[in-house]
Amino acid sequence: WPDTTLPSLQTGALAELLLVLLGLKVPGAASCPTDCVCYPSPMTVSCQAHNFVTIPEGIPEDSERIFLQNNQITLLLRGHFSPSMVTLWIYSNNITFIDPNTFEGFVNLEELDLGDNRYLRALAANTFQGLVKLHALYLYKCGLSSLPSGIFGGLHNLQYLYLQDNHIESLRVADCGGRADGKVLAHIAANSRALHHETKPTLPNRIVGTAGDDGRTKWKIANSR
Questions:
Q1: Is the dihedral of CA 215, 146, 86, 97 positive or negative?
Q2: Where in the sequence is the signal peptide annotated (predicted)?
Q3: Rounded to an integer, what distance in angstroms lies between the CA atom of residue 74 and that of residue 207?
Q4: CA–CA separation, 182 and 50 (whole Å)
Q5: Considering the domain boundaries, does residue 215 fall inside one?
Q6: Which CATH number does the domain housing residue 89 bear?
Q7: How wide is the angle at C-alpha 24 spanned by C-alphas 21 and 27, nearest 5°?
Q8: Which of 33, 91, 150, 175 might form a disulfide with 115, Cβ 3.0–4.6 angstroms?
Q9: CA neighbor of 102 nearest in space, from 121, 84, 126
Q10: Integer Cα distance of 209 and 225 in angstroms
C-alpha cells in the first residue's frame, strides 16, 4: 500500500500554520479550557455564560485577561489563577468565599470585577493585600454588610472603587485606599448613607455625587478647598 503518512503530516502542519497566521492559535501555548475561547496578544481567556460552577481547568498560565462573568462559580481559591493576570471579570456568579491568598503575589493585576455576587457576605482584611497596580475594584451588589479595617490598605493606585447596592453601615474615607501621597482620586459609587469622614491633612474630606453615563451615582472624593 502507498505510504500516506507524510502527506497527512504535511496537511496537519499546514493547518496548524494557518491557525497561527490567522491569530486563532498561539505557538507553544497551552490548550484553551473546554467551552472557552482564547485569543493571543495579550493572552485572553473568555469563559462567560457557560454555567461553570468551578473555575475551569486548563487556563494558560500566561493569561493576562480572564472573563468568567455570568456563571455559577462559588469559590475562589489560591492556585485558580496565575500572577500574570492583569484583568479578571468574574461578576454575576454565586461566589460565597474568597480565599485571602487567592490573589497573593498578583503584582500585575489592574482590574478586578467581583460585582453582583450576592452571597459574598464577608471578605478577609488581606484579600487584596499586595495588589500594587490595582486601579479598579468592583464590589457592587454583593451581600457585604461591613468591611474589615484596612482592607484597601496599600492599594496605592486604586482609583475606582464600586460598592453600591450592599448593606454597608459605615465606611471611613480613610479606608478607601488611594495613592500613596493620600490624594485619593477615587470615584466611589456607594449605598453609603453613612460614609464616615475621618479628616487628616493628607486625606480627603469632601464627597461630591454626580450621575454617571451608566446611570450609577459616582461619589468623587476630593480634598476640600
A1: negative
A2: 1-31
A3: 35
A4: 42
A5: no
A6: 3.80.10.10
A7: 70
A8: 91
A9: 126
A10: 17
Burial class (CB in 10 A: 0-12, 13-18, 19+), 15: exposed
Number of independent structural domains in the chain: 1
- Structural domain of 127: 19-170+184-192
With beta carbons less than 8 A apart as the criterion, state whether 178 and 184 touch. Answer: yes
Grid coordinates belonging to 58 = 486548563
* pLDDT in single tens digits along all 225 residues of the chain: 544 444 443 444 454 445 445 555 444 445 899 999 999 989 999 999 999 999 999 999 999 999 999 999 999 999 999 999 999 999 999 999 999 999 999 999 999 999 999 999 999 999 999 999 999 999 999 999 889 988 998 998 998 889 888 988 766 655 665 543 333 334 555 544 444 444 332 333 333 444 455 544 444 443 333
Residue 197 lies in a domain: no
Provide the pairing of β-strand 111-113 with 160-163.
unpaired
Half-sphere exposure at residue 130, Cβ-oriented, CA atoms within 13 angstroms = 12
Question: For residue 44, is it within any domain?
Answer: yes
Contact by Cβ (8 Å): 123, 95: no
- Strand locations in the chain, DSSP E? 37-39, 44-46, 65-67, 75-76, 87-89, 97-98, 111-113, 136-138, 160-163, 171-172, 187-190, 195-196, 206-211, 217-222
What is the Cα–Cα distance from 150 to 200, expressed in whole angstroms? Answer: 16
